[in-house]
């Protein structure tokens, strides 16, 4: 029965600006440890809130690349961040 379940892990979500780097590092390390389980998927979202740079947020690319390398493209899910992103991006 356990083989029927899939787990989606939401990655890269900031809690607040002061903690976001620590949270992102902890989330990344935890998420990477889960990559060995083929039924774990990762939701990528809130890149704009983690970044200290303008679009396309190049300081988040390394995190995304590590997740891509660990999970592969079929186990990454893109989060739209809607409606939160509207207040940020307009």
Q: Gist?
A:
By secondary structure, this protein is an alpha/beta fold. It is built from four helices and three strands. It has a domain at 20-51 and 59-79.
Distance between the termini: 45 Å
Give the class from helix and strand content and strand pairing.
alpha/beta
Question: What proportion of the residues is helical, as a percent range?
Answer: 25-40%
Could you state the order of secondary-structure elements as H and E? EHEHHEH
Low-confidence stretches: none
Average predicted local confidence, pLDDT: 76
What is the CA-based Rg, rounded?
A: 14 Å
Report strand order across the widest sheet.
1-2-3
Give the overall silhouette.
Answer: globular
The biggest beta sheet is recorded as: 3 strands, parallel
The overall strand count is 3
Number of helices: 4
Strand composition percent? 5-15%
Structure description:
The protein has about 90 residues and is an alpha/beta fold. The protein contains 4 helices and 3 strands; from the N terminus they run βαβααβα. It has a 3-stranded parallel beta sheet with strand order 1-2-3, with helices on one face. α1 links the parallel β1 and β2. The radius of gyration is 14 Å and the shape is globular. The relative contact order is 0.20. The mean pLDDT is about 75.
Strands, helices and their partners?
Blueprint: E1 7-11, H1 20-33, E2 40-44, H2 47-50, H3 61-71, E3 76-78, H4 84-89
Parallel strand pairs: 1-2, 2-3
């Amino acid at each position: 029965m356990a083989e029927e379940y899939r787990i989606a892990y939401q990655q890269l979500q900031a809690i607040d600006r002061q903690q976001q780097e620590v949270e992102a590092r902890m989330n990344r390390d935890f998420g990477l440890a889960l990559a060995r389980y083929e039924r774990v998927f990762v939701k990528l979202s809130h890149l704009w809130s983690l970044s200290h740079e303008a679009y396309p947020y190049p300081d988040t690319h390394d995190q995304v690349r590590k997740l891509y390398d660990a999970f592969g493209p079929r186990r990454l899910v893109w989060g739209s961040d809607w409606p939160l992103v509207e207040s940020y991006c307009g």
